[in-house]
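Hi R.,

Here's the chain you asked about this morning:
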Amino acid sequence: MFEKLRKKLGDVKNKLSRKIEEKSEKPEGVVKPSAKLEVKRALKKVARIELSPEDLEDILWDLQVSLLESDVAVPVADQILEKVKTKLVGKKIGIREDPKRIASEALREAINEILRTGGKVDLLEVVKSKRARGEPAIFVFFGINGTGKTTTIAKLAKYLKDRGFRVVLAASDTFRAAGIEQLEIHAQKVGVEVIKQRRGADAAAVAYDAIAHARARRMDVVLVDTAGRMQTDIDLMDEMKKIVRVTNPDLKIFVGDALTGNDAVEQAQTFDQKVGIDGSILCKMDADARGGAALSIAQVTKKPILFLGTGQDYDDLLEFKPEIILENLFDTG
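And here is the predicted structure, written out as tokens:
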């Protein structure tokens, strides 16, 4: 995960640590060669160097290029640069301090702040809270075609079922050929119910039926699958708004393909503007060498990443924590 970005950040970290080392070796005020040894001994005890904007100029440029090449959205790359600059410019650094540690911490802290921008939504707490009130939690999923949305819904159904919740799926993808059948196959494999109608039926009506079924059977969660749609498709976006209106969901979840980088970020942003999203799930994270979507999507939408899809099996769904990304980007040793 994130091999290319990890290498690029490693290169920037090494350049930054070398800059700190160079500055440490040339402390200001050392002008008497004859007293060099005495000065050096004194510096080991008390001297501290300070990084200037000029010291960081080339390094920050390299960092910006590395982030953009890794499909990090431009405004997010700019924010990371500003955070690194704020953390290092004017920083007093003792010459005994480890330059690599200082460089790594500055980069890590900046990216950590970006990843936490969207806050946190505890999906399990949402389900427990609704169950305590005798109501099912309702989650509606959307995204463009081919992102793995239906498979992700099946993974989340298993995740919830494994934790003791009763789940029903709403086959509201009545637009795509074999969309209903695909959801039924997944539901059989993970052992949950599906509420469906014929192909071409009103998608909002299917979701409404599933919610009524869940209430009648005292089930805990309704997961509403919807047709994949481009964010520019006006008719299908209007249908999405109707589904949201009818279901009044507890969470509206965007499912994106991490491999598409900036495209996934733009899609999430547009869906958020059109229907509002409460969080995102990123699929195919195990194959993402660049990492741009994971670093950008929470910052751009101001909504959290909820889960990461990390493979083809139904158990390959990982609750998102910033530490997962950070550990993949930086050496832990």
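One quick note: Residues 24 and 95 are 6 Å apart (CA to CA).

Cheers,
M.
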